[in-house]
Amino acid sequence: MQLINAKVLNEQTGKITAYSKQYQLDPQTTTYLQVAASKESGPIIHKIPTDEELLLLKKSTRQTHQISRVLSDCDI
């Protein structure tokens, strides 16, 4: 399980709203998560279904980030 955090800064008030959610990230697979901001509830994180991943990336005009994780004791 990995804890994913998102924070949004309200530029008018200076208040930071944080949101965290745990996801099971399977080894040797790519998982896509979408982070969005909602005026009502602050940041939102949700896992993108496999059949929607590439379509959403092709249409994306926003930032995308990639994180790769390898265990420190990995022999690769």
Question: Which descriptors would you attach to this protein?
Answer:
76 residues; two-stranded antiparallel sheet; two-stranded antiparallel ribbon; 1 helix; 37% strand
Please tell me about this protein's structure.
The protein has one helix at 53-59; strands at 2-9, 16-23, 33-38, 42-47. Helix content is 9%, strand content 37%. The chain contains 1 helix and 4 strands, in the order E-E-E-E-H. Strands 1-2 form a two-stranded antiparallel ribbon. The longest helix has 7 residues, at 53-59. It is mostly beta strands and 76 residues long.
- Beta-strand level of the residues, as a percent range? 35-45%
Give the ordered list of helices and strands: EEEEH
Topology, number of strands: 4
Derived structural class:
mainly beta
Low-pLDDT ranges: none
Spatial arrangement of strands, main beta sheet:
1-2
How much is the radius of gyration in Å? 15 Å
Q: Please give the count of helices.
A: 1
Q: For the report, how would you describe the main beta sheet?
A: 2 strands, antiparallel
Distance between the termini: 22 Å
Summed over residues and divided by their number, the pLDDT gives a mean of 76
Outline: globular
Helix content range of the residues, please?
under 10%
